Amino acid sequence: MVQAGLYAELQTLCRRSFPERLEQRVSQVREVEGGRHPMVSFSLAWREGRRPRVEPLLLRRYADDWTWWSVEDTQKAARAWEVGGWLYGRGLPLPALYASGTAEQAPYLLMARAEGRRYALERPADREAYVEAVAAFLARLHRLTPPDAVRRVLPEARAQDEIVRLWSLARTCGDEGLIEVLAGLSRGKAVSGEARSEGAAREEAATGDAAGKEMEEFPPCVLHGDLQAGRVRADARGLTAVLDWENAALGDPRWDLARVANELHEREAHDLVEQLYQRYEEESGLPAREMDYWEALSATQQWTLLVWLKESGSTVDDGALDAARGSAWRAWTRIRYERGDAG
Fold this sequence. Notes:
Layout: H1 4-17, E1 22-32, E2 39-48, E3 51-61, H2 76-89, E4 97-103, E5 106-112, H3 124-143, H4 148-151, E6 156-157, H5 159-173, H6 176-186, H7 198-207, E7 221-223, E8 232-235, E9 238-242, E10 249-251, H8 254-266, H9 271-284, H10 291-311, H11 318-339
Parallel strand pairs: 6-10
Antiparallel strand pairs: 1-2, 2-3, 3-5, 4-5, 7-10, 8-9
């Protein structure tokens, strides 16, 4: 049963957010199960002239301060607000955002409830439709130039800087498997098991290369940062919403591609990964090359953060941790075989 206090909170929030909506009434309040950040789904009825109106809404509260790019990120709600509002205004499939602020010391977003259904990746038809839609969406997103207000809330995601950060976290946790993979991805001494200052590690990592090849990063673009099938909604006409923009960043577009590819690998949809890359190349004009490296780096980032969170006492989904670890080793093993140093 939903607490009376929650009804009162939602009514107060809606009156403050929509002062022009007369005779407001909140109903169908439901706490959404699952996910890191608590969400409440509800409907708001009001009168517009003589016409009754109803809109389904969603309240999202941010319960922690970490993203894939930082373990202390206090800009999550502000980032989701700025990026989401900008992209919605550019006509991308995102829900309308109505309010952002802090209530009971927790940042929140009030938004329209997304229409459409989730893609079911266990169904072959849904998998193919998802790949086509996501490739086109990412190509469109990555072509956009963000305004200054959006740039200010976006972290920069440079591969070698990220390796140094992850190496530091891996050493804190004492995870030798992570250190081994990060050492291979850097090919410098920066991520060895030796104790080094972060400044020295950063300098050495910068002289390393991507698994034996020169590190080449494409010009930075706006990234979703954590695109997965569960964050996409669609109907018969195509995408209706892409959700959860708190992990958005400025970086190489292959970060986003690798995230999607790793989930497809996890679902045993290996044949569709090349289709994803091909469609993205056709839509964006950018070559999706060196993707084994980016798949390994993306998965290792997730693996490292989940291990760090678990070691720090946070509740971590062991299935997600195992999936990230498996994706990282799978991609890293492919790289080693290509280099001829496996075994």
